[in-house]
Structure formats: C-alpha cells, structure tokens
Specification:
eight-stranded parallel β-barrel, xylose metabolism, metal-binding, Xylose_isom_bac, 2 domains, TIM Barrel, 440 residues
C-alpha cells in the first residue's frame, strides 16, 4: 500500500463563500445541480501531470524551490515515476478531481533507446491503471512530448530530418496506445516547436504538409485501435519557436480545413496562449465555437506585465465568467478543463499545490454560476439580437438569404439617399450589466 504523501491535507470539501478555511471550496460544490446537471459534469476538471507532479519552480535565473520527490530517493528515476503516480492519485482524490492529462515523458523518464522508453511506459501504465480502478479517476487526454528532447530542435512534424519525423511518429503511436489504455476522451497535439525561426532556411509548405500527414497517420492509427475521441490541436503563437504554425484559433482552423482534418480534430484552447496571440481567452473560444471546433480547454492565465507563457492559476472571475459564457452557449465541451497551471516559484509547499487548484476550481465554478445567470438575465442576448434587427426583414432579409444582387443593393442605397449612423453599441451599458450580475 502506498504511503500517504499529503498527510497534513484533508479531503477538500465545500464550505461556502463565508468560510475562512483555506483548504476548502468556497464556490465549487461538485454535486450542486444547475439546470439538471451537476457542476462537476459541466466542468470536468483535470490535473496536468507535468506541472503538478513535475514542476519544481525552476526558472531561467534560478533552481527549483519545491520538493517533488514525493517520498522517492532520486528525481528522474523509474522509482520517482511510481511515486508521482501515488502522489497524483492521492492529490486528485483529495480534491475530487476526476480526470488527468499527460505527456508520455511526464509519466516516466526516457530510456537510452525507444524500446527502453516504451518498456518503462508499459510498467508505469500498469500502476496508473490499477490506481484508476481503485479510484474511478479517468484520463481527459494524452499526448506525446515532441519538444523537450534535443532531437526536436526543429520540431517533430516540421523537422528537416526523416529520422526525427519517424521517431515522433513512434512516440505518438505509443502515446495513443496509452491514451486508449487509460480510457482517454481525447488526444492532443501541441506544436511547441512546429514552426520556424527564419525563412532563409525554411520551406513552409513542405513543413506544413508533413505536419498534416503526421496528424492523418495518428488519426488512422488511433481509429484502428478503437480510439473514438476527438483529436485536438492547441494553438500557440510563439515560445519557444518564433513563428509557430498554430498561431491562434483562426489560423489553426484554417490549417485543419486546408488539410482535410476537420472530421477528427477540434481545438484545445489555452487562455494564456490566446493572450500571447493578442486576443482574449473569450475570443479564441468564440472563434472555435462558431466553427464547430471547440473541444477542450487548458485553464490558466497569464500576467499582463509579462510577455510569455506564465501558466498561472486562473483567478479572475471576469475571465472565467466570459469563458463559461462562451462554453455554455456553444453547447459545452467534448473535453474538459485541464489546469495547465503551476504555482508561483515562491509558493513551494505541498499546501500551495492545493491552494492553486482550490483557487482555479473555485474561480471556474463561480464563473459557471455567473455565466448561467448572465444567460438567464437575457439582456446581453436581447441586445445583440436587436442590434442586428435590420437584417430580419426587407433588404436586410434579402442580404441574409443571399437573394439580393449587388445592383439591387446599389439601387436601394441610391434611393435611400442619406444613411443614418448604426445603433449605438452601448459597450459601457453592457459592461455594467455584467457587473450587476456578477455582484448581485
């Protein structure tokens, strides 16, 4: 029987907004039913294996501050990998988190050869499956780490080396095997190095075609072994590669359609990546949703004063409300909310791991509650409907049903003479509505 890692941490319970207990939920009441569905089913929270069990607070200027041994003797060993499994499932059980996400390299260190790596993965997979059976915890999605090892210095699908490309394919195959073994709902591609630094040495068309081919190969193999879930692409504009091919939601949707991947692929939208692309989180969610490609979400936030991917725990209820507003109005997620978040470097204790997740889980639970209230209030929807009312009849209706010709429109405008200003957008009023709903 595994030793208890978080001995001083109780099972985290809902105590309500008035509670001063830091190890309690103030808004996330997992079994609270709203419109016939419990909160936990709307949200489907997932633990990110890499940050929660692996990130020790290292940054470019200093060593780690957090102890992530979890009772093992040496970091980066197979023994440590087993300790992380025990710690991860204890952590999720104490928080009531029902899903996890993983990269292959998060689970166990790579071996000297691909065969050795796969053998290690098989060993750790048996441990994970046993824990799943004991706890009922499921896999939200899996993926392969195709960016950390030096072999991927030019990317995986975008690599100029056929040998590297083949190695990436082998990793994807194994990661898909594991995802199916864990009952994963999805499989994700994060193209962190699928891009270029300079056009002087790059054939963009060649690289994009190779990336798309690798994705088609993954789909074909996944379906052949019984994977029925969605494949995801996670947009990100930069970092580490200067120009990444999956810049934002719109760019990625164009890529998916250009290469015939739309039957199998949706998007995994990360909040911090959207803001790095110069958008809001809400924007990339909306663009994904209106194109029928909103699949899953990496729930985090960035720092407005820092221009890189800080992966902070989400805390702004404005952001989570706007996010859940988009998600609810799109019909929900096929995936869930993966906390691709890490505690700050000075927050290095085991308690801080829990505080981060409590913060994020509460923030999105309150965001869901307030998004439901905004929708029920109806003023935002009614305003938008009225704003476009001129397209509901007359010449506007003919524009919408594509029966109007350019000549007809020109004649209509000439006959009309002067055109008044469109109706006011009333942004300030609508923002006051949001404030009223959030704080009532």
């Amino acid at each position: 029987m595994a030793q208890e890692i978080f001995k001083d941490i109780p099972k985290i319970k809902y105590e309500g907004p008035q509670s001063k207990n830091p190890l309690s939920f103030k808004y996330y009441e997992a079994d609270r039913v709203i419109d016939g569905k419990p909160l936990k089913d709307y949200l489907k929270y997932a633990m990110a294996w890499w940050h929660n069990l692996g990130f020790a607070g290292v940054d470019m200027f200093g060593a780690g501050t957090a102890d992530k041994h979890f009772g093992s003797k040496t970091l980066g060993t197979v023994e440590h990998a087993h300790a992380k499994v025990d710690a991860g499932f204890e952590f999720m059980s104490k928080l009531g988190i029902e899903y996890f996400c993983f990269h292959d390299a998060d689970l166990v260190p790579e071996g000297d050869t691909l065969a050795e790596s796969n053998k290690r993965l098989d060993e750790i997979a048996e441990h994970i499956v046993a824990k799943q059976k004991a706890t009922g915890i499921k896999c939200l999605w899996g993926t392969a780490n195709l960016f950390s090892n030096a072999r991927f210095l030019n990317g995986a699908g975008s690599s100029n080396s056929a040998d590297v490309y083949a190695y990436a394919a082998a990793q994807i195959k194994k990661a898909l095997d594991l995802t199916v073994k864990f009952g994963g709902l999805g499989y994700a591609f994060w193209g962190g190095r699928e891009g270029y630094e300079t056009l002087l040495n790059t054939d963009v068309k060649f690289e994009q075609e190779n990336i798309a081919n690798l994705m088609h190969l993954a789909v074909n193999y996944g379906r052949s072994i019984g994977f029925k879930g969605d494949f995801y692409i996670e947009p990100k504009p930069k970092e580490p590669t200067k120009h990444q091919y999956d810049f934002d939601a719109a760019t990625t949707i164009g890529f998916i359609r250009q290469y015939g991947l739309e039957k199998d692929f949706k998007l995994n939208i990360e909040a911090n990546h959207a803001t790095l692309a110069g958008h809001t989180f809400q924007h990339d969610l909306r663009i994904s949703a209106i194109n029928g490609m909103l699949g899953s979400v990496d729930a985090n936030t960035g720092d407005a004063q820092l221009g890189w991917d800080t992966d902070e725990f989400p805390w702004s209820v404005y952001d989570t409300t706007y996010a859940m507003y988009e998600i609810l109005k799109s019909g929900g997620l096929t995936g869930g909310l993966n906390f691709d978040s890490k505690q700050r470097r000075p927050s290095y204790t085991n308690e801080d791991l829990f505080y981060g997740y409590i913060l994020g889980m509460d923030a999105f639970a309150l965001g869901l509650i307030k998004a439901k209230a905004l929708i029920a209030d109806g003023r935002l929807d009614n305003f938008v409907k009225e704003r476009y009312a001129s397209f509901g009849s007359g010449i506007g209706a003919k524009i919408r049903d594509h029966s109007a010709t350019l000549v007809e429109l020109a004649e209509y405008a000439e006959k009309k003479g002067t055109v008044p200003l469109p109706g006011s957008g009333r942004q300030e009023f609508l923002e006051s509505v949001v404030n009223q709903v959030l704080f009532q």
